[in-house]
Amino acid sequence: MKAILVRQFGGPEVLKLEDVPTPKPSAGQVLVKIHAAGVNPADTYARSGNYAVIPPLPYTPGTDGAGVVDSVGDGVKKVKPGDRVYVAKSLSGTYAEYALAAESQVFLLPDRIPFAQGAGVFIPYATAYHAIHHKAKAHGAETVLVHGASGGVGIASVQMTRSLGLTVFGTAGSAKGLELVKREGAHQVFDHSNAAYKDEIMKATGGRGVDIILEMLANVNLGGDLKLLAPRGRVVVIGSRGDVTITPRDLMSRQAAILAFSLWGLTEAESVEIHAGINAGLENGTLRPVVGAEIPLKDAVQAHIDVMKPSGAFGKIVLIP
Fold this sequence. Notes:
The chain is α/β, with parallel strands linked by helices and 321 residues long. 29% of the residues lie in helices and 27% in strands. Strands 3, 4, 5, 6, 7, 14 and 15 form a 7-stranded mixed beta sheet that branches. Strands 10-9-8-11-12-13 form a 6-stranded parallel beta sheet, with helices on both faces. A two-stranded antiparallel sheet has the order 1-2. The longest helix is centred in the last third of the chain and has 17 residues, at 268-284. The protein is globular, with a radius of gyration of 20 Å.
């Protein structure tokens, strides 16, 4: 089969398309024929060797994917050959024609969801769910600011908080991104490339501030975020690419909090809850993964460049084997 291999850490150019043996499932394992693989910023961090979870070399990147079950090992009861599934992490990586996964890493994909959208389920929607429900403990009638709302996690966050009854603000850095965020459910959108956008947000809240901020680029925005919080507000750090300076008194005066997490630290109970919630949203149409670009697997290098562009991804970038 064709697969992307990383044999040394480095820039996007270390992603190489190679011929490798097709895995065979052992007991408790599932082999999925991948129709689409999701590309996440975390994939680029791992590829660079600068990430909390460093895979052993050589490896095939990719935690997200969607396709059809090809075969199963002994004892697998959750899925059968021919089932449409999405993959939430895997044993062999999803940037490939086939991916080997544990039974616990595959989930049925509703018929109404195309494979390209299915490849945008796990990281974006599990991250959004964990941030909104487990960390921020959001509830209806609160106001949320999704800071960097035009990417995969941002869109998932907008859809999810809108369905919960929150007032949803979203930021993006282009007219295209702002239009997308508005279309996916934000009540108001703000251009974070505009120097006055924070003033506009405060004005939109009547000077009170926002209850929750879901932050995708904390190293750039966190210091300013704290000044946008309402009393007892909280910022959930979802993404960061460096160090940041903050003024603790901005937290103290508001009795506010900064919360953060890594998706790799989920408990089993949290994971079960997350996938139950995701499945319900996919089935009833509340959650609608947006695909920004479909790129051939052989062009994974370009996908890793595009997913890190400052202008944003405008939805999920997926690789098509």
